[in-house]
Amino acid sequence: MLDHVKKLIAYYEEVLSMPHRQEIARELRNEDDLFLLMLYSEMIGIPNPVYYYTLELYPHMIEKFHDWHLRMGMEKSPLSGIRCC
Amino acid sequence: MNAIALAAIGLFIFVLGYRFYSKFVAEKIYRLDPNYVTPAHRYKDGVDFVPTNKFVLWGHHFTSVAGAAPILGPAIAVYWGWLPAVLWVVFGTVFAAGVHDFGTLVVSVRNKGQSMGTLANKLVGQRAKILFLFIILILVLMVNAVFAWVIANLFITFPSSVLPVFIQIPLAVWIGHAVYKRNAKMLVPSLVALAVMYLVAVLAAEYQILQIDLVRYMGGEDGAGIFGLGAISSAFFIWIVVLMIYVYIASTLPVWKLLQPRDFINSHQLVVGLGILYLGLLFTNPSITAPITNPDANDVSWFPLLFITIACGAISGFHGLVSSGTSSKQLNKETDARFVGYAGAVGEGVLALISIIAVITLFPNADAFKESYNSFAAASGGGLGNFVLGASQLANGLGIPAEVASTIVSIIVVSFAATTLDTSVRLMRYIISELGTEYKVPALEKTHVATTIAVVSSAALVLIPEGPNGFGSGGYLLWPLFGTSNQLLAGINLLLISIWLKRLGRNYLITLIPMVFLMFMTLYAMISQVFTQWAWWNEQSSTLLFVFGALILGFALWICLTAISTLMSKNQTPLDPNE
User: Fold this and answer.
1) Predicted structure pTM score
2) How many other CB atoms are found less than 10 A from the CB of residue B45?
3) Distances from the Cα of B453 to the Cαs of B159, B514, B570, in angstroms?
4) Is A8 on the interface with B (CB under 8 A)?
5) What number is the ipTM of this complex?
6) Do A27 and B256 touch (CB under 8 A)?
7) How confident is the model at residue B16 (pLDDT cuts 50, 70, 90)?
8) Quick check: A29 contacting B, CB < 8 Å?
9) Which InterPro entries match (chain A) (predicted)?
C-alpha cells in the first residue's frame, strides 16, 4: 500500500516538474551556448586573446561541442582544428 | 433526472469511446507503429525533445489544455437546455475532439515534431501559414479581453477571492526560486502554497476586513467612483488596469520565475476542483432542475450556435497547438499517442460535463433557471457566476461551508482564467514577433515592443465604452467570434490531417466528417452573424464585429478553398509514412 502511495506521489511530482525541467534545461543550454561561443569566438571573427588556453579545454568538451554545432545548424565542425565528426 | 445518473452515462460513453473508437482509429487509420522512432528519440536534446512516460505526458497535456474555457462555454450553452449541451460535449469529445487532438499529435510526430502552423505551410503553402497566424492573433486578442473582464467580474462579485489570488504570486515566485536556484523538489512547496492560499480563502470568507472590495470602498453600488464612472465601473477599471500591468510583467519575465510555478499550483487546483465536484455530486445526489430543452430560448438559435458556444470541452483548435507544439516532441512511443491525445481530450470532456451538471442543479426549479437564463446575453454574462454558485453547492455537500466553498471555487476559476490570460498574452507576443519576421519589420521582433502592442490592444478592446455587460466588458463585443475562430482552427487542423491521410493513401473520412460538420456549423454561424446581424444594414449592426467577423470569414474561406483544392488535387506525390 505504502509503495503504491509512494509511486503515486512520484508520478505526480514528475507531471508537475516536467515543464519546469524543460525550462531549466533550456536556460542552462543557453548559458552553455554562450560559454562555448566565448571560448570559440574566433570562428565568427571575434579575436580571442586566450584562444591558446581555451583550446586546451577541447578534449574535455568535445562531445558538448559536437552537440552544439549540430544544434546551431552546422553539420560539420566549423573549426578546422577541431574534428569531432 | 438524477444528476449522478447523467454523469455516469456521460463517463460511460467516454470510456467506450476510448476503449473502442480510439483503438479502431489508432490501428486502422493512424496505424501507430510501436517501432517508429519518435522525434523525442531521434532529436533528443534534453530540452524540447525528451522521451517521457505516457502517464506523465498525459498529466502534462491535460493540465495544459484544461483552463477556464471548458467551464465557461458549457455554463453558457445550458441556455438551450441541458440535453443539447450534454450531447454535444459527450459525442463531440468522442468523435471530434478525440480524433482531432490525437491526430494533430500523430501528424506532428510523423513530421519531426513540427507545429500545425509549420505543417500548414508544408501541406498547403506559405499563405496558409500566415492566415493561420492571423486567425490565432485575433483569437488570443479576444481571449485577453474577455478573460480580463471575467477575472475583474469575479473579483467584484466574490471579493474574498482577491487576497488568496494575489498571495499566489509571491508564493509562485518563491517556488520558482526554490526549484530553479536550489534544486528543491516541487511537490511539497506547491502543496504548501496551495494550503496557504486556501487558508487565506477561509479567513477571507470569514472576516470582511480581508476582503478587498473596491465597490464597498467607494460607497457601495451607488457610490460615485472615479472619473464619474460610478462605483462598479470604477472597480472594473481599476482591476483591469491592475491585470494589464500584471500580464505585462508576467509575460516578459522568464517563464520559470512566475508562470510555471503558478501552473503547478493551478494543476493541483484542477485535481482538487475535479475531486471536490465529482465527490460533491456523489454525496449531495442533486436532481436536475433545469429544463431538458428550453423552448423560451429563441432570441439566438441553438443551431448552429450551440456547437460554437461549447468549444473547449467538445472540440477546440487550441488543443492542436499544444498537441503539436510540446506534447509531440516528448512522445516516447508512437502508440502512446492514443492515450495522451485521445484520453487528454476525454479529460477535458469530463471537466465540461461536471461544469454543465453544476449549473443545471443550481436552481430550485425550472422557473428560477429560466429567470436567470432569460436571454442569451444574460446567459453569457451570468454563466460563470452560476457555475461558481452551482459548484459551491456541490462542495457544500462535502461539509464545506457555502461561503468558503464559493470563495475556493472562484479562486480556482480566477487562477485558470489568469493562466489562460498570461499564456495568451505571451502567445500574442510570439505571433506579433513572427509576423514581424515574416513581413520584415524588425522592430516587432523586440520583446517589449511586441508585448506593448499585445497589452495595449487588449486593454483598448476591454475598455471600449459600450460593452454588452457594462463597462470593461468590451471583450464580449468580440466574444461571439471566439467560438467560431476556435472551431475554425480545429476545422483547419482536421483538414490538414485529412490531407495528410489522403496523401498516405488511407481512409480519411474519420477526420473529414467531423471537419465538414464543424466547418459547416462555423461558416453557417459566421455568415449568418456577419451578414444578418452585424452588417450596417441591420438593426443590431456593429462595425467592430462586422470588420473582425468579415476578416476571419475571409481568411477561413481562403484557407478552406486552398486546402480543399489540395485535398482534391489528383497529382499529389504520395507521402512515405517512414520518411
Assistant:
1) 0.87
2) 15
3) 31, 36, 44
4) no
5) 0.72
6) yes
7) very high
8) yes
9) CC_star_Cory (IPR047717), DUF7990 (IPR058303)
For the cut 80, the answer to whether the pLDDT of residue B12 exceeds it is yes
Whether B264 sits inside 8 A of A20 (CB atoms) is: yes
> Rounded to an integer, what is the distance from CA B553 to the centroid of its chain?
21
pLDDT at B340: 95
Distance CA B334, CA B82 (A): 38
Query: Using CB atoms, which residue from A18, A23, A67 is nearest to B52?
Result: A18
Q: Which three cell numbers stand for residue A76?
A: 560539420
DSSP string, B339-360: IIIIHHHHHHHHHHHHHHHHHH
**Is residue B496 within 8 Å of B123, Cβ to Cβ?**
yes
Length of chain B: 579
- Contact between residue B160 and residue B236 where contact means Cβ atoms under 8 Å apart: no
Phi, psi of A30 (to 5 degrees): -60, -40
Whole-number Å distance between alpha carbons of A26 and B141: 28
Task: Say if residue B70's pLDDT is above 80.
Answer: yes
Weakest-pLDDT range from A50-54, B201-205, B346-350 = A50-54
pLDDT, tens digit (0-9, with 9 covering 90-100), for B75-123: 999 999 999 999 999 999 999 999 999 999 999 999 999 888 888 888 8
| pLDDT given for residue B578 in this prediction | 61
pLDDT score for B17:
97
> What distance in Å separates the CA atoms of residue B72 and residue B77, rounded to the nearest whole number?
9
Whether B380 and B402 have beta carbons less than 8 Å apart is answered as: no
Q: What is the pLDDT of residue B447?
A: 87
User: Backbone phi, then psi, for B331, in 5-degree steps?
Assistant: -75, 125
Query: What separation in angstroms does the CA of B567 have from each of B251, B504, B512?
Result: 39, 12, 10
Rg, Å, chain A Cα set: 19
Q: Do B256 and A16 touch (CB under 8 A)?
A: no
- Give the sign of the dihedral formed by CA B468, CA B469, CA B472, CA B474: negative
Report residue B524 as a C-alpha cell: 453557417
Spatial CB neighbours of B149, under 8 Å, sequence gap ≥ 6: B236, B240, B462, B467, B469, B472, B473, B474, B475, B476
Mean pLDDT over B386-406 rounds to: 91
8 Å CB contact between B413 and B388: yes
Question: How far apart are alpha carbons B217 and B223 in whole angstroms?
Answer: 9
Nearest Cα residue to B75 out of B434, B497, B382: B382
Q: What angle do CA B88, B10, B401 make, to 5 degrees?
A: 105
Residue B216 predicted with pLDDT over 60 = yes
Q: How far is CA B511 from the centre of its chain?
A: 22
For residue B465, the model assigns a pLDDT of 66
CB distance from B255 to chain A under 8 Å? yes
Look at B60 and A23 and tell me if their CB atoms are within 8 Å.
no
